Amino acid sequence: MAALRRKFGEDYQVVNTNQATTFSAPVKKKRQRFVDKNGRCNVQHGNLGGETSRYLSDLFTTLVDLKWRWNLLIFILTYTIAWLVMASMWWIIAYIRGDLNHGHDSSYTPCVANVYNFPSAFLFFIETEATIGYGHRYITEKCPEGIILFLFQSLLGSIVDAFLIGCMFIKMSQPKKRAETLMFSQDAVISQRDGKLCLMFRVGNLRNSHMVSAQIRCKLIKSRQTPEGEFLPLDQCELDVGFGTGADQLFLVSPLTICHEINHKSPFFDLSQRSLMNEQFEIVVILEGIVETTGEEAFPITTVLVPLLP
What is the per-residue pLDDT across 92-143, written as a single tens digit (0 to 9) for each? Predict the structure, then answer.
């Protein structure tokens, strides 16, 4: 115990795990987090130049990353505009050929039968695009421009369907919501385990379905200055949670306690209790694995605690 006191300074208090002693957590000061508890990163990029064009060059990923309300708005607007434009093209062909003036003339062969006005042209397009085929409106063989437009409509409809429906499917199948049933402890603690001083927190899975190949990693995010005088903002340091022993590979059927041993390799080795409370840093925990039911990879991310409690 004396060695532990010398290591962490005189203000370090030894925790006796054999006695039922409780400690009240100090009042936390609200501060801006680098990563929120729900895994959302509070990082905004600025003054990059050409940022909009970079997002548009990867339009599919940009649409998937948008919020649901914007996705639904783009989905509805794209189909509505495409339907109106294509229906207008069918109406223009009928108007140029004079089919609108011979709508009820049985001796006249129009481009599209039974298309008298814009609503009937719109209904013909919807019946064709959705492959409903009521049989009342149909294209005739004496309309080459209509055949070309029909082929263009089929190709364009397939592209729009593949793009938008694929985007919606991928967005719905994202494993982000799986993180809602993976629980992390609200606080982390520093205490002794097996005679060693350890930083510990808990993680649990609420669902009965397993996380296959679950692995946990911890990152310490802290600004520091190198011996050469270079300032490194938000420098990332890996915390050892059992890489060498395989303890980072989890069989998550019940809540588990994740342990980081504070030894001479730990970034907390030279810190005391008081300095821990005053330091500006953040511990980010990343749990990655494969969802058993869908076979997709899930990456729940959370921030454990700032500051740490003894």
Answer: 998 888 888 876 777 788 888 888 889 989 998 988 888 887 778 888 888 8
**Is residue 215 located within the same domain as residue 246?**
yes
Q: What is the pLDDT of residue 274?
A: 80
In this prediction the pTM is 0.62
In this structure, what token pair is assigned to residue 188? 């982390």
* Radius of gyration of the chain from its Cα atoms, rounded to whole angstroms: 32
Same domain as 277, residue 249: yes
Residue 255 included in any domain: yes
Mean pLDDT, range 1-11, rounded to an integer? 41
